[in-house]
Amino acid sequence: MATTTVTFSLRSSDLIPSQVLSMTTSKRLYKAGSALDGVNQMDMGRVEVPTDDYGGGAAKAYDLIDATALAVNKSNYIYIANLTTTESNYVVVSCKDHVIGRLYAGDFMWLPCNFDAATNDIDVQAFVGTATLEYAVFHEGKTLTETDA
Amino acid sequence: MATLTPTLTLSSTDATSDPLGFTVTDSLTVGAPTVSLSRVDVLHTGSGTEIITAAASNPHTYFYAKNIDSTNYIICRTAGGTEWGRLAPGEFMLMAVAATVGIEFLAVNATCEVEYAYWSKP
Asked: Predicted ipTM?
C-alpha cells in the first residue's frame, strides 16, 4: 500500500472582512471501507480536448476516466484541472452522461468518485476552444484492456 | 466581489518511485449568493438532504464539503438524484458545480454531519 495525502486549504480576506477565511484540511487516501490500507495505484497525465471532434464536426464528450469493472464500489479519487488560460473557454464534466460540473480556465476539482457500475465514466467536453486538462486518479482497482491480436 | 484562493496539495513518498508532491492553486472571483462554512445533518432516509437546488436561475458555484462523521459515508448526487461520488469519514471535496445541476447528499446507515460552503461565480 502507498501513503498518499491530500491537503486542501481555502483562504479569503475579503469575503467577509470581519471574518477572514483560513481553513486547512488533510486526509490520507484509503481503499474503500478501510482506515489502514492506502490506495496503491495512480494514473496521471495531460490531455487536449478538442471542440470540433478532431475536425469531424460538432464537439463530443470524451472519456477522461474510464470506470471499469474492477473499480466499481472502490476508492477513486479524482483531480481534474483546466489548464486553459483563456477565461471564456470551459470544460463540462459529466458522470453517467449527466452533467455534474464545469471547469473554467485555471479551475480544478477534487472528487471522491464512486463508480457504481463499469459504465459510469467521467466524461469531459470542451467548449469555445481546445482545452488542456491535467488529471490524476488515485485508485485501488482497474480492469486492464486485453492487447489487440 | 471577493477573492477566494483554494489550494490542493497531493503528496506521497511511496506512491511511485519518484516522490509525488504537487500543489495547484487558483484565484477565484466570487460573489453572491455565498454560504460560509456551515454544518448540516445529512439524512439517511428518503432522498437525503439537498444542499443546492437545481433551479434554472442558479449560477455556476464553487462548492466545498467535508464529511465530519467518524463512522459512516455519504453519497454525493446531483439534485436530480444522479450519484457520482462518496465521501468516507473525514474526506472532503471541491467541486465546480455547473448551473442548474445542484448538490444532494444522502447519508448511509445513520445521519451524518457534513461541513460545507459555496460561492458563486459572477
From this structure: 0.93
